[in-house]
Amino acid sequence: MKSKSVNWTHLITLEPKLQDLRESITPQPDTPPECTYYVWAQEVKPRLRELVGWFRAQSHPILSSPEAYGLAAEVLRDAVPACPEDCTH
Ligand SMILES: [Zn+2]
Fold first, then answer.
1. Low-confidence stretches of the chain (pLDDT beneath 70)
2. Does 86 fall in a domain?
3. pLDDT digit string, tens, across residues 38-57
4. Ligand 1 centroid from CA 80, angstroms
5. Ligand 1 centroid vs 61 CA: distance in angstroms?
6. Which of 10, 48, 63, 67 is deepest in the core (most CB within 10 A)?
7. What's the gap in Å between 32 CA and the centre of ligand 1?
8. 24 CA to middle of ligand 1, Å?
């Protein structure tokens, strides 16, 4: 964990859409699992970039920082379900 004063609870207080994004990648029981890398690159990362880090449209002293992006990316990467066993990515 980074020593900067950002943590997940703080981030989702500042930007609740981060929590929505995290919840949106919870695996659905009746949908077959998708490749972790595909979900990350196609579904999570583009939305994450709109909320935190340099690409955030609305500049914010904490949310626009690379530390905030790094932390959010770490939390969300952990939330993406594992690849299916037969995945050949
Ligand atoms: Zn995969």
1. 1-4
2. no
3. 999 999 999 999 999 999 99
4. 11
5. 35
6. 48
7. 12
8. 19
